[in-house]
Fold this protein.
Amino acid sequence: MTAEMAVLLPVVALLVGVLAALTAGAATHLRCADAARTGARSASLGEDDAAVAAAVRRVAGDGTRTAVGRTDGWVVVHVEATVGPAVPLVGGFTVRAEATARAEP
């Protein structure tokens, strides 16, 4: 019984770590999607890129990267954030979201 537990315990710990990383990634993705929509609304109303980035940071938190594009009456806001490692010795991963809105006249 002890030998089986010694073999299974690291596997269970790894599964818990992977589950925590996936949960953190999903939560970060939802925050990035909300921030991208907020940024797209702000940009569509004529705000400059600095104001859009500030609105994105307010929703998604610090550490996010924002890019704003404007073409043919449309604005596109890209937001990305890095999710830190939940499992030791494993690197983090990047989550991205994008939103598009029609520019107001």
